[in-house]
Amino acid sequence: MGVRNRCRKALLQARFAAEINGRPILVNLEFIRSMLEDPELGVGAPLDEEDWTWIATLAEAIQENLAEIRERIGGSLENWTLDRLSIVTRLILEQAMGEMFYCSSRTPAPVVIDESLELARMFEEDEAAGLINGVLDAISGDGGKG
Question: How far apart are the C-alpha atoms of 57 and 128, rounded to whole Å?
Fold first, then answer.
């Protein structure tokens, strides 16, 4: 698993925790960071400061643009509404949108789509990957693969 993949996974976990526990995203990110840095837990290798900065920047971009991100996602859903999506599917879509369109260091759409599908396969039901692929492909407008 690549470093940016691990970063995306950590951010998704922190955002999910924030949805559930109501704590600010940065508090949840610090908790994830402490777990990764504790060798006795064995949950993964620590990320370096540059990676945590990238994660925090992406989290901030998502939060600052969340209304627009959700509007764009909602407009791309066929036979679905945003509130019918599982929390994880919605978070993956929001995160992908933030990375593609709102983060200062934008990642090419095909890369973001592939990484989002990887997260979906890791944390969601099989059908979610297809939905995520279709929505992100439509939004990116560039024929991103999946």
Answer: 26
pTM tops 0.90 = yes
Listed in sequence order, the DSSP H helices in the chain are 3-21, 25-37, 49-64, 66-76, 87-97, 109-123, 126-140
What domain range includes position 79?
Answer: 3-140
Name the domain count of the chain. 1
At 104, list the tokens: 């200062």
Mean pLDDT score, 107-132? 94
Query: Does 146 reside within a domain?
Result: no
CA distance 134 to 146: 9
Furthest-apart CA atoms within the chain: distance in Å: 46
User: Any idea what the Cα angle at residue 75 is, between residues 90 and 113, rounded to 5°?
Assistant: 50
